[in-house]
Amino acid sequence: MSETPPDSLIPYDEIVQEALRAVVGRVLGEVQATGGLPGEHHFYITFKTAHPGVELPKHLTERFPDEMTIVLQNKFWDLKVADKHFEVGLSFNQVPAKLSIPFAAVTGFVDPAVNFALQFQAQGEDTGPEPHEHAENDGPTVTPAEDGSNVVTVDFGRKK
Predict the structure, then answer these.
(1) Residue 88's closest CA among 138, 39, 24?
(2) Complete domains list, the chain, with CATH
(3) Could you tell me which of 22, 31, 16 has the C-alpha nearest to residue 78?
(4) What's the CA angle centered on 137, arms 85 and 152, to 5 degrees?
(5) What pLDDT, in 10s, does the model give residues 8-38?
(6) How many whole angstroms separate alpha carbon 12 and alpha carbon 151?
(7) What is the rounded CA–CA span in Å between residue 130 and residue 74?
(8) How many CB atoms lie under 10 A from the CB of residue 22?
(9) How, if at all, do strands 141-144 and 106-111 pair?
């Protein structure tokens, strides 16, 4: 008898990834609706710069050919959130830039004010992200179940 679980005919991974991206979209949509970040909240958003649909100024694409992390905190403007992407104005070395980022390109979302983090693969990719410098925030800790099953416990580091 084989202990290898059968391949699923239901794309659970894709469904979960899509749901996680919906969290990012909802949070950004609330920031857009209220006109700013509440309290001490701020976000680090990591995304694949070469992903289809990403729109960046050429100098940023050259500087970050694979992956980039942006910070939404004090100096951002014109945040617009749609079903499949968001747009935001940011300044890089005092040069303003407008970015358009599909949610499918996002690989990480962190709100260090409350120690919350989500990480996932960019949609349409079979390989993991290339190593790059991350913000000094820990991602979620995944602990396998002790009974040997495929169920995992995800600890987002939130203090109880």
Answers:
(1) 24
(2) 12-38+48-125+139-155 (2.30.30.220)
(3) 31
(4) 80
(5) 889 888 898 889 999 999 999 999 999 999 9
(6) 13
(7) 28
(8) 13
(9) unpaired
